[in-house]
C-alpha cells in the first residue's frame, strides 16, 4: 500500500489498492512538496469530528508534462476525488478539464481539479491564497491599493488577474524579459476595466511609481541561493509591504533587503496554505481547518 509520504508515479496505479477517498498533488519534480503534509493534517483534523474523513488520504505523484493528459484519465478511472497541480502542469491541465471556474477561466490555468461524472472540473485558488496571505501577514488589502508586481510568468498572470478583479487602484508590472512583459500586459487588458496597468524595466523603475504600494514578487528569482534579488528596493518609493511568493528559502534576498529597510514583509507560505485550504473545501464541501494546515506546513518547512 502506497504511503502518503512516498513519491508515486503513474506506474503505481497499475496495482492501486487504496479503497478510501484519494486526493493527490501532481508535479514534476514533486519530492519537496509540502502539500501532502498540509492536506493530511487537515484531513486528520476533519476526521476528529466527522468519521467520513477517516479514510481520506492525499498522495503525491511525479508526472512528466507529456504524461499529464493520460495521468488525469487514469486517476479519474481509479476514483481519485481531487487533484492539485503544480509546476509545470497548471496551464497544460486547463485543456484537459470539462469545466472551469471564472478565476481559472480568466487566468487560463488550473491548480485544483474535482472529479465529476463528466470529467475533471477545474478551479484556480492561487489568487485567493495570495490575497488572503497578504491580508493575514501584512494586514494589507489588494482592493484599492497600488500594486507593483514583479514577474510575467504563470504566477504573475494569476496575481495580476486577482489584483484587477479585486479592483486594485493601479497595477505596475516589471519583468526581466520585455517580450514576456508585453504578452502579460496584453493578456490583462480585458480584465483591467479602467484600471491603469503599466509595464516597466525592473532595473530602471520610473519616477512616477506610487509610494505605499504593495510589492509582490512573482518571479522565481530567489529560489536559488545564487539568485540576485529581482529589484533593488532602495530605488523604489517606500512601499507599504513586500510579499514574496517564494517560501523556500523562507527569506529571499528581496525580503532581507525589505527587512533592512524596515519595510513589512512576508514570504509565500501563507499563500500556499490558503490556496490549499480553498482547494480542500472544493473537495469536501466543508470549511477547512486552516490552523491544522498551517502547523503542518511550518513543521514540514522546519524539517
Ligand atoms: P514561471 O512561469 O517560470 O515564471 C518565472 C518568472 O520569473 C518570469 O517572469 C521570469 O522572467 C522571472 N525570472 C526567473 N528567473 C529570474 C531572475 N534570475 N531574475 C529576474 N527574473 C527572473 O514561474 P511561475 O510559475 O510564475 O512561478 C514564479 C514563482 O512563484 C516561483 O518561485 C514559484 O515557486 C512561486 N509560486 C509560489 C506559490 C505559492 O503558493 N506561494 C504559488 C505559485 C508560484 P523572464 O520572463 O525574464 O524569464
Write up this protein.
With 303 residues, this protein is of the alpha/beta class. The chain has 2 domains: 7-124 and 270-302, Leucine Dehydrogenase, chain A, domain 1 (Rossmann fold); 127-267, Rossmann fold (3-Layer(aba) Sandwich). It is 37% helix and 18% strand. It has 10 helices and 13 strands. It has helices at residues 35-49, 68-77, 90-94, 102-107, 126-138, 154-165, 178-192, 253-260, 269-284, 290-302; strands at residues 7-8, 21-27, 56-62, 82-85, 99-100, 112-115, 120-123, 146-150, 170-174, 196-200, 214-217, 241-244, 265-266. It has a 7-stranded mixed sheet. Strands 10-9-8-11-12-13 form a 6-stranded parallel sheet, with helices on both faces. A hairpin with a 4-residue loop joins strand 6 and strand 7. The two termini are 25 Å apart. The structure holds NADP nicotinamide-adenine-dinucleotide phosphate (NAP). NADP nicotinamide-adenine-dinucleotide phosphate (NAP) binds at residues 87, 126, 129, 151-156, 175-177, 180, 218-221, 223, 227, 230, 245-247, 268, 271-272, 275.
Amino acid at each position: 500500500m502506497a504511503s502518503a509520504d512516498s513519491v508515486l508515479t503513474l506506474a503505481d496505479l497499475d496495482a492501486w489498492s487504496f479503497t478510501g477517498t484519494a486526493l493527490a498533488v501532481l508535479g514534476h519534480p514533486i519530492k519537496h512538496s509540502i502539500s501532502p503534509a498540509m492536506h493530511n493534517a487537515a484531513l486528520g483534523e476533519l476526521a476528529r469530528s466527522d468519521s467520513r474523513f477517516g479514510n481520506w488520504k492525499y498522495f503525491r505523484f511525479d508526472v512528466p508534462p507529456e504524461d499529464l493528459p493520460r495521468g488525469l484519465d487514469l486517476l479519474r478511472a481509479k476514483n481519485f476525488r481531487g487533484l492539485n497541480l503544480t509546476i509545470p502542469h497548471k496551464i497544460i491541465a486547463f485543456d484537459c478539464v470539462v469545466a472551469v471556474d471564472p478565476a481559472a477561466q480568466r487566468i487560463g490555468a488550473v491548480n485544483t481539479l474535482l472529479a465529476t461524472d463528466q470529467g475533471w472540473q477545474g478551479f484556480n485558488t492561487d489568487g485567493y491564497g495570495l490575497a488572503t496571505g497578504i491580508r493575514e501577514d501584512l494586514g494589507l488589502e489588494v482592493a484599492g491599493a497600488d500594486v507593483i508586481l514583479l514577474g510575467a510568468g504563470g504566477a504573475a498572470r494569476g496575481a495580476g488577474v486577482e489584483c484587477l478583479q479585486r479592483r486594485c487602484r493601479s497595477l505596475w508590472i516589471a519583468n526581466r524579459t520585455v517580450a514576456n512583459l508585453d504578452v502579460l500586459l496584453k493578456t490583462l487588458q480585458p480584465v483591467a476595466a479602467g484600471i491603469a496597468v503599466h509595464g516597466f524595466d525592473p532595473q530602471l523603475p520610473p519616477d512616477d511609481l506610487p509610494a505605499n504600494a504593495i510589492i509582490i514578487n512573482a518571479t522565481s528569482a530567489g529560489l536559488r541561493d545564487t539568485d540576485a534579488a529581482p529589484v533593488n528596493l532602495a530605488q523604489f518609493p517606500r512601499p507599504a509591504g513586500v510579499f514574496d511568493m517564494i517560501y523556500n528559502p523562507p527569506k529571499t534576498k528581496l525580503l532581507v533587503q525589505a527587512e533592512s529597510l524596515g519595510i513589512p514583509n512576508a514570504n509565500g507560505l501563507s499563500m500556499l496554505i490558503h490556496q490549499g485550504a480553498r482547494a480542500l473545501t472544493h473537495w469536501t464541501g466543508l470549511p477547512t481547518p486552516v490552523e491544522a494546515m498551517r502547523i503542518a506546513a511550518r513543521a514540514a518547512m522546519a524539517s
